[in-house]
């Protein structure tokens, strides 16, 4: 098993290790109240619990669904940084070359520092994402979340902790055909139908007046709508999308989802709904001399904006 993962992760920086652990307790510092999400594991009994480490430092946790060759979620904490503008760059991996899909990070490198940022460049922290959804719609919410948490850390003298779970709902139809030397053995990578993020900020003040939570979920397609939710609403959505009888609980106790701070943030997030920036989508595609549908048929592009010229096509089934 361990060698199996090493082959797949050979493209990440030296010092990275994906350690398969027996239970969540071996990597529970990335979970709110050190408790893993409930119900999600029922989606995939044949899953690997992975403690992502870099130079022997634990960085985040991923739950990998082997039969679908996809990660169900990554759990991580937000690392404080106060730069005015972070330089964002995400790696292109051969497993996604010319499929027409982005290698979408679940744990974003812009949320991490140092070793933590280096550790995000792994296939077990990525799922295929529609390029227009990833670079326009999802990026808006991801960046807004980063700004909220950065501002919160500055204002909160008690320096609380932001626990985040970003996950993917397995798709029912589309798969990306891959070659045996590109991704954890030969087979198909599942294209998720939905991507979601849940945020739980736990302040260290005695009254928890600065604690809050919020979530958002979006359909992984061109123009896919993203909906802002509280944690209880996300739990219900995921139960429905996973099509399971067991209740889903992303955070133990739902992390202050009913307090005023959570309600205020949710109202702010909802202002982003409907702002799909369609003109920017078309501008982005025109600049590359192709529209979004052509981009899917021919090539994918790096998240840092550089072009990747098409050489061949891969079959989407």
Give a summary of the structure in a few sentences:
The protein is of the alpha+beta class. The chain has a single domain, classed as Extracellular Endonuclease, subunit A (Extracellular Endonuclease, Chain A), CATH 3.40.570.10.
List the helices and strands and how they pair.
Elements: H1 2-8, E1 16-20, E2 47-54, E3 57-65, E4 70-77, E5 102-105, H2 114-118, E6 126-129, H3 131-155, E7 161-169, E8 175-178, E9 187-190, E10 194-202, E11 212-219, E12 226-229, H4 231-242, H5 260-270, H6 278-287, H7 292-298
Antiparallel strand pairs: 1-2, 2-3, 3-4, 4-7, 5-6, 7-10, 8-9, 10-11, 11-12
Describe the structure.
By secondary structure, the protein is an alpha+beta fold. The chain has one domain (2-298): Extracellular Endonuclease, Chain A (3-Layer(aba) Sandwich). The protein contains seven helices and twelve strands. The strands form three sheets. An eight-stranded antiparallel β-sheet has the order 1-2-3-4-7-10-11-12, with helices on both faces. It has a two-stranded antiparallel sheet with strand order 5-6. It has a two-stranded antiparallel ribbon with strand order 8-9. The chain is globular, with a radius of gyration of 19 Å. Keywords: Signal.
């Amino acid at each position: 098993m361990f060698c199996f993962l090493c082959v797949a992760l050979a493209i990440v920086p030296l010092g990275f290790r994906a350690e398969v652990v027996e239970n969540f307790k071996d990597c529970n510092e990335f979970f709110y109240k050190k408790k893993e999400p409930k119900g999600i594991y029922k989606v995939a009994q044949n899953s690997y619990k992975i403690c992502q480490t870099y130079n022997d430092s634990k960085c985040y946790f991923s739950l990998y669904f082997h039969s679908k060759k996809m990660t169900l979620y990554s759990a991580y904490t937000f690392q404080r940084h106060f730069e005015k503008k972070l330089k964002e760059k995400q790696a292109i991996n051969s497993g996604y070359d010319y499929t027409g899909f982005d290698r979408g990070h679940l744990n974003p490198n812009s949320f991490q520092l140092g070793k933590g940022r280096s550790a995000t460049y792994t296939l077990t922290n990525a799922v295929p994402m529609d390029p227009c959804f990833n670079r326009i719609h999802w990026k808006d919410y991801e960046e807004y979340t980063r700004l909220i948490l950065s501002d919160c850390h500055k204002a909160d003298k008690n320096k609380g902790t932001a626990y985040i779970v970003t996950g993917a709902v397995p798709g029912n139809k589309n798969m990306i055909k891959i070659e045996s030397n590109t991704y954890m053995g030969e087979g198909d990578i599942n294209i998720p139908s939905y991507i979601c993020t849940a945020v739980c900020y736990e302040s260290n003040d005695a009254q928890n007046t600065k604690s809050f939570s919020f979530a958002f979920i979006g359909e992984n397609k061109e123009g896919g709508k993203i909906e802002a939710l509280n944690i209880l609403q996300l739990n219900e959505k995921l139960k429905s999308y996973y099509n399971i009888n067991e209740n889903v609980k992303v955070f133990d106790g739902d992390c202050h989802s009913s307090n005023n701070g959570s309600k205020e943030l949710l109202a702010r997030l909802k202002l982003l709904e409907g702002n799909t920036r369609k003109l920017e989508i078309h501008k982005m595609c025109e600049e590359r001399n192709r529209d979004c549908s052509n981009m899917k048929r021919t090539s994918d592009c790096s998240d840092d904006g550089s072009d990747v010229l098409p050489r061949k096509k891969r079959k989407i089934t």
